[in-house]
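Supplementary Text 2. Reproducibility record for the structural model of the 542-residue chain.

All settings were left at their defaults, and a single model was retained for analysis rather than an ensemble. We include the record here because the model underlies the residue-level annotations in Supplementary Table 4.
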Amino acid sequence: KEREAGADASTVPVIADKKAESDAMMSQDLAAAPAPQAIEPAANLARNKMEYGTVSSDFRTQLPDQILVEENRDKFPEFKSNSTVLTAEQPVSTFSVDVDTSGYSSLRRALNQGALPDKASVRIEEMVNYFPYSYAGPEKAEEAFKANVTVTPTPWNKNTKLLHVGIKGYDVPVDAQKAVNLVFLIDVSGSMDEPDKLPLLKSSFRLLVNKLKPSDTVAIAVYAGNAGVVLEPTKASEKAKILAAIDNLQPGGSTAGEAGINTAYALAQQAFVEGGVNRIMLATDGDFNVGAADDEALKKLVEEKRKSGVYLSVLGFGEGNYQDNLMQTLAQNGNGVAAYIDTLGEAEKVLVQEATASLFTIAKDVKIQVEFNPARVSEYRLIGYETRHLNNEDFNNDRVDAGDIGSGHTVTAIYEMTPKGAPGQTNDPLRYKTGNEPDTYTTSTGEYAFVKIRYKLPSEATSRLVTQPVTQDKETDSASTDVNFAIAVSAFGQKLRDEDQVANYSMAEIKKRATASRGEDQFGYRGEFLKLVRLAAGIKGE
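Retained model, structure tokens:
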């Protein structure tokens, strides 16, 4: 600029000297500054913070091409995908039902932030069960639920078929719904001081309070450095008092989760409704760092408390600190559901649209066992439910805990099976006879499999049994929109987990099937799914 202004050449060395002096001063400042605690290349800013953490706002210690990051402590339980097994070797598959949906919300958050989700967060059954389906249901509460079975061609493999089992729970009429006693157990620790944590939590619980009947009861307990009672059991008719207690919550302190749980159970017992709904709604970012913090200790605590008739559900909020494995453990062993609230729209889905399903249990300890006929099916695999496996002998053992189904809930399970004699079998046939060769089984029934479901009514300790054979008349080339949409969702989950079975099945094909089976989509959930497929395709470069 000096030159452009007409300065003579003698000024140039002066400018150079001033620049050298400035550079020296900057070097001294950098040398005196504390060393960065964590360094990442600036190029990593393009990667999702779910993987690399939250960017620090302290730039004084940063070099020009480096940034500071805080450690991301989101934690999901690792698991291996189900393998394909020889029917002659292992004809029986047993698992617990799962109506949790937190996995779907977690992967949606990642995709909306421009990154593929952690594979451990992709639980395919939670993706499929996120959506409502119009399966045929039972006509009376004593039946609890009805199973709907369909066999269809596999869209990603012409040599296999899909066995689709859709369960619909009894939908309790409004006038038959029993009194509700709720305790909101709210994490107000310092880590909750983020827009997508405590503020979103407050708005979410306001939605639920507005859904309750005047005769229902609400109490509020909080925990941070210590646990405390914010609101004694109060009738929902005093709505203003309840909402004011929620609005006044402020974050601060560490996280005394164990003490908070004990306080909440005490409040639930104080207003216990005999024969009604007694439930704790734990809302947290998942960090328990004071008191019993390991999964096993908290699991035993919740298992013991559920014997009193008080159940526990978990609502997760925020990121960077979310301990999904612990939240799953608490919900599963507290006879409750686990949901992840990433938007107010998700809160409206879980706490308003699905409130009766979340609150009113119509069947508990629900287990599914499928026995495949080796004469008709050479091999099979269960898609999802890896974290819900049970031993075969657990099916008839009423002491073994399993998942619960709420009013109007739908549960879907999908098996991929290879018909006997079809090409493309993944496992080589057995060379040596074991005494269980397929030709020793009867073929007269023409059954692919036999489905058994065990469950207990909420007030009973002895299970009931429902059975249904999977015969050829269940087979169709034109399945319902619900069945086809569930299949599309399962394919998407497998793509996100990079499963070999769907390696040649494209995102475009998934989107096409989901679009064709979108159906009525009253609340737009299926439309949102289509958007997530497009986002994932873009991120993967498809």
